[in-house]
Amino acid sequence: MTDLAPPPSAGCRNAPVLKERGQREVFCGLTGIVWLHRKMQDAFFLVVGSRTCAHLLQSAAGVMIFAEPRFGTAILEETDLAGLADAHEELDREVARLLSRRPDIRQLFLVGSCPSEVIKLDLARAAERLTEIHAPRVRVLNFSGSGIETTFTQGEDACLASMVPVLPETEARELLVAGALPDVVEDQMLELLEALGIGPVRTLPARCADLDPSVGPNTVFALTQPFLGDTHAALIRRGARHIEAPMPFGDEGTTAWLAAIAREFGVSQERFEAVISAPRARARKAIAQASEPLKGKSVFFMPDSQLEVPLARFLTRECGMDAVEVGSPFIHDAIVGPDLDLLPAGPQISEGQDVERQLDRVRKARPDLTVCGLGLANPLEAEGLTTKWAIELVFTPVHFYEQAGDLASLFARPLNRKARLHLAKNTLGGLGADSPQPVS
Ligand code: SF4
User: Which domains does the chain have, with CATH numbers?
Assistant: First the structure.
């Protein structure tokens, strides 16, 4: 099979899916602001929420490294929650104050939260009203990061989907790549696409409002993140066409992703090979080194980041792991179907969450590695299981060839740590209780 040929159709795409509808154990969509505010340099995210929302953002974002932060919280006080104050007037005042202080802000996102949804604060109406007041300097949009029935990656999806209806119209044939990537990774991707002769290439989100893409019936788009279901639907509503492909994780995923786009743009096999061969060889070498501790180990994915299916594909096909269960909050066939095609048959595929039942299955299977949310990792570690925080996979650069080795390392690290602890424990046991303890 040549690299430009479509991947074979088999694997888990038609495997029965266990649908779970129970208690969920996930972070809310406000988390996405932590990486989006770094990416969009002239945007500001104003969370309309409670002190809890403010605390979540501050602790998730860590130490503020910007001279001027690009997110904040308009706190709803108890009186607002009781419906006693006009929250709209208060919000207008807050926004006016913010924009007068910060002329650098060109895009303002009003971000809904559980409290703003409880009091039914209409942020779509507020965004329209505020756009009229502050246009053309500032565009005001809104999306929800509420924790009710959402997962943490849905925040980015909701944000990007809110932008699609206001993107300018175009008739041009262009490639649009959707999904927030760290700038350095995005630059690598753009270099590869340019070397393949593919262009013009636009990105969503763009680094600033002036670079926002246009969209229309001749736009074709590719996703770099599997959690962009609403963005995918919004782009299709604007007439754009999706290029289905495995996600660009690992050597195989990156190659298949680039090949799908190359086919769309009529790139020759020779040119494709010439462009990808060196970075691909580097990726293969890095994966081979980093994945040594993963070989023959089992992995269980709890549903959390929506990255589970493509990552399971990477770990099983490129790192020699066996997947026991691959759980994902949502399984969107048009987006993760190509990854499911490649995922070797065998694991239970599950969609949604019923946390207690899933934990029972984890305890029964006792996998070598469980990929799960922060709230589940500590209790499972206490039971002797080894875990990987799913959220790290979103905060760390893991896409495309140059990061493929790092991606394998992220999964190898907890297994290496466990092996070292095991060794230290045995050494201590051998030394006896009175012997001096080695310093690690
Ligand atoms: S949006 Fe909801 S879940 Fe998220 S921090 Fe605020 S109150 Fe908590």
Answer: 1-24+168-440 (3.40.50.1980), 29-150 (3.40.50.1980)
